[in-house]
Amino acid sequence: xxxxxxxxxxxCAHLARMPLRLLTKLQIFLAYLLNTLFLPIAKILDIKxxxxxxxxxxxxxxxxxxxxxxxxxxxxxxxxxxxxxxxLIIDCGAEVGFTTSYFKYLFPDSSIYAFxxxxxxxxxxxxxxxxxxxxxxxxxxxxxxxxxxxxxxYTSDPGNLRMSLRKDRLMGNEVSVKTIKLSEFIKNKTxxxxxxxxxGHETTVLKDLVRSNAIKKVLQFGIEYHHHISPxxxxxxxxxxxxLENNGFKYQLSTRSVQTYNSFQDIMISxxxx
Length: 274
Known about the structure:
The protein is α/β, with parallel strands linked by helices. It has helices at 2-17, 22-37, 39-45, 62-74, 98-106, 119-131, 182-186, 202-211, 237-245; strands spanning 49-52, 55-58, 88-92, 111-115, 137-140, 143-145, 149-155, 173-181, 193-196, 220-227, 249-255, 265-273. GO terms for molecular function: methyltransferase activity.
């Protein structure tokens, strides 16, 4: 309970600093507060739906849904600004649709392509899109990669947030999933915002976007970089950032502190054109 309260305070501190209207911040705060207070009851009753800000999202357990509410809506990890009232957004690693709903909250008239390779999560993603009446939103049951075809995908319990194309990210069940070459998918589009949270496969995808020149079609990125997935990983974060720098992007970084060497660390990258 102490950790939950600590996380609540830290998340709300992030919310207070965001460039949002005061009324919007208050609405998000109240939604987070109510769902935080509801956590013990939801666990007892095994509730798997979370309601907030006019949305109703189904998931695998309330605790994970509450975590995503804090990360995405309260901390605003994927916040971005644009002059386009109808931005085109690509959501890679959409899971059950939390980031998709966040983008619809910011930009109700946006067009969104949401990629999710896990079939069980994808079914909930489709259901959440339909039941929340998201327009101009297309869900694709595939992983983004540097080629179109099939790949090994590692899963565990339903809704696990670490499912990945990398075996060392999640030592679980191996299944075959469809892959889509992201550079081909976006080559004839202008992408206002490209969100990438694909559990360690982000370097492969970004390198292909650079190699194919498709990166020129992207105006802004929101990337969750997975640093030191394995303790034996070579540190290559500077090389990843150089891919952005060499293609005209500036960026801001955000991460939680880590006290031990060779520890796994999520690093949020918000990249934008100079």
